[in-house]
Amino acid sequence: METEPARMTAAEASSAIQARKMSCEELVRSCLARIASRDSVVKAWLRMDPDHVVRRARELDKTAWKGPLHGLPWGVKDVIDTKDYPTTQNSPIYDECQVGRDAAAVAVVRGSGSLILGKTDTVEFASFGRKAVSTNPYNPAHTPGGSSSGSGAAVGDFQVHLAFGTQTGGSHIRPASFNGIYGLKPTWNRVSREGARMSSLTLDTVGWYGRSVEDLILVAEAFRIHRDPTPVAVKGLRVGVCRSPVWREIEPAGELALNTAAKRLAEAGAIVEDLELPEPFGRLHAAHTAIASSEGGASFLPEYINANALLAPGLKEKVENVLQITTQQLLGAYALADSCRPVLDGMFGPSLDVILTPSSKGEAPVGLHTTGDAVFNKMWTLMHGPNVGIPVCFGPTGLPVGVTLVGPRMSEPRLLAIALACAPVIDAEAEERKRRLWPA
User: Considering 43, 77, 318, 361, which one is annotated as catalytic?
Assistant: First the structure.
């Protein structure tokens, strides 16, 4: 083939398989070869059985085409259950723990013909504690972000075409920015969380990564999030640039990415204007902290009681309410979020099609002791609407930086259609990312 299969987007690979120009086995062997050549550096995977996945690929080659996901390899964040691999949650408490059935999200894509390649590394319980050993594909001295560390790194490094992540604060969208890939965090509860370890019932959301908006749409359709048939043009699109109440935390690379994306859209004919959020939105960051910490305390109480010595100190602190969050503070946080969500939804209409906002403070930080700061993600997670992460440019140290498109709740079809139109304008470095990681 002209293009190494592992270098393709999921959409390109899907078309090749459907047209019988490539077999499922060819695709998965290309991924396995890439992993073999890069795993010692990127370290994205916790569990994988190459012989098993080749056998499964051959089985898929024998079966009738099941749809656009047929034969496409997936990485699954190791807080999400799969029937063929343990779910360790990167915790010594659950080492070798195998549930024996797929989480709902995994069952949907497997049943649609996807091939589960393996489990990707994660921060412990997708929360606090042990970090993943995964590294940033562009510079192993830097984090790939987290907690969806291995998933972001594996897709970014062309080791797998699609991967599941989860987000409580910024655990899905931030790694998309750091690894130069596309990500969808759907509307809260739009995708079943059954079989995924929860840290916060109010916040946790299952999402997925790809290398193009079309990749994200392929998966969305498997979850019955159907395409918006209405064409979207960038010219005349109303874009609100939201620097958010935490703009003081921005770094030069994050500001560069936001300004560059806004400039490119304006030059393509979009109506780009600054968007100021009402005063109550400035209190949402603190509300997120109160909710995430309090609900985390309830989530990790079983481990606190039954495996205290093995539980990370940061998770014990949630159970012990070290932040001393009062009942009134927690009720106030819930009430504030409940009141702000319809206000945000109501901003969209004739004068606003989409919000453009930072995905991260800037480039991926140095070191694997950190996964970066979710300060630019938490408010949007708490608002429960869909977010699409799009790569923009490289920062001053040569690492990717992206932006986020935000829509109102339950607007995935429209938001993805907008992202599909905007991505070719915003993401001008796609070929350069390929060249840097894997020259043709």
Answer: 77
pLDDT single digits (tens) 371-380: 999 999 999 9
Examine the residue annotation and report whether 185 is marked as an active-site residue of this protein.
Answer: no
375-398 pLDDT, tens digit per residue, is: 999 999 999 999 999 999 999 999
SS3 content of the chain, % helix, strand, coil (to 5): 45, 15, 40
Task: Give the torsion through C-alpha atoms of 431, 435, 436, 440, to 10 deg.
Answer: 150
State yes or no: is 149 an active-site residue: no
Among 114, 147, 199, 200, which one carries the catalytic annotation? 147
The domain spans of the chain are 13-227+239-276+342-437, 279-334
| CATH class (in words) of the domain with range 13-227+239-276+342-437 | alpha beta
The pLDDT confidence band at residue 3, using thresholds 50, 70 and 90, is confident
Is 77 catalytic? The answer is yes
Q: Are 53 and 11 in contact (CB under 8 A)?
A: no
pLDDT above 70 for 1 = no
Q: Average the pLDDT over 150-177 and give the result.
A: 98
> Considering 134, 151, 171, 212, which one is annotated as catalytic?
171
Structure tokens belonging to residue 9? 């987007």
